[in-house]
Amino acid sequence: MHDLGRGLSGGEMIMMGGGNPAHIPEVEALWRRRLEEILARPGAMETMLGDYETPRGRPAFLEAMAGFFNRTFGWNLTSDNIAVTIGGQAANFLLFNMLAGPDGLSARKILFPLAPEYIGYASQGVAEGMFTAWKPRIELLGSHEFKYRIDFGEIGPEIAAICLSRPTNPSANLVTDAEMERLAAMASERGIYLMVDAAYGQPFPNVVFKEVKPLWNENIINVFSLSKLGLPGLRTGIVVANEEIIERVAVMNAALVLSTSSVGQVITRPLFESGEITGMCREVIRPFYQARSLQAREWIAQAFDDSLDYHVHVCEGAFFLWLWFRDLPITDRELYERLKARKALIVPGSYFFSGLEEPWRHKQECIRVTYGAKPEALRRGIEILAEEVRRAYGQR
Ligand SMILES: Cc1ncc(COP(=O)(O)O)c(C=O)c1O
Questions:
Q1: Among residues 95, 100, 44, 115, which one has the least CA distance to residue 267?
Q2: Does the beta carbon of 261 sit less than 6 angstroms from any atom of ligand 1?
Q3: How far is the CA of 223 from the centre of ligand 1 (A)?
Q4: Ligand 1: which residue has its CA nearest to atom 6?
Q5: Which of 34, 43, 55, 303 could link 386 by a cystine bridge, Cβ 3.0 to 4.6 Å?
Q6: Judging by DSSP bridges, how do beta strands 344-345 and 193-197 pair with one another?
């Protein structure tokens, strides 16, 4: 993780590691327009910068979000079902530690039903050992593709909530509607929560390449973020949940940050009210990432020998390609070091298996590649990767 930050400022590294949204000119023009509109309206900038907000968010923004989700998905939310946080990361931190952790003599856990999961969850438990995970089933598709499927197990009394990102960071998997409905049913049956982290999901930024249906009920907590729209600097996350959870998020917000950050709410509110955001996601953001993902996949097919035992997870959304090198004689971390020495940065896959304690060779056979880098750099990075993987297989 430290290397990712260093690489960003280093300039010469080929960055295939982080999850930064791409700088898309049409999208940046929209933010510029909104800032100009705010500056032009008397008093708008002054209240945006100069006033504290409630610990749950700006009332007008909460109303706008409830209306937006209701129109988009046919949900029946009111503004009491919405809370703003300082980013999706903060929302997950608050929710994990609100729902799980030490509870009298027992410790309650968060279950990741499909490992690998988002690296950013790994250190979010205030207590030790707060996470557990199910090992996925691997479905091979063609000679060089695969998809993870949830291998459903029992949900024991120690589980406080089930959590997954959809689409999944790192694997770009979209857990299917049938899998989601089964998880939601399990959560309802046990009276626990299903947390869905939609950082890349519908309806914004909508980096989703397959039709799936987001779910909502009293046992589901959806977490959204403005970051992957191209606004990570604004630190705005949005929690959609039942009123009790929302009230508890507000209390934690009040203790931790006093007030929510207004800028993201003020910039985006009219875009949610008019629905303009939906068009921008559908017509600009999603096609941008889909084209990049297909291009990267093509370069991989060109650069890697067909005879190598490599497999790419089907890319159904998010910003990543997840590669699995079956029986690679070196570990993911050794591969990472070799690539770094050649100035190409990826993320070793073994970091993404938080909560999955059992030994499994697969954990050391995967890497995550971000395909949002500049095309020429990405192409070169993929060539370097293919050379190093070929060399590593040759060491057998
Ligand atoms: C799956 C997932 N969840 C949450 C986050 C956190 O995003 P933010 O705090 O910027 O909203 C990220 C960021 O990369 C992510 O990939």
A1: 44
A2: no
A3: 10
A4: 89
A5: 303
A6: unpaired
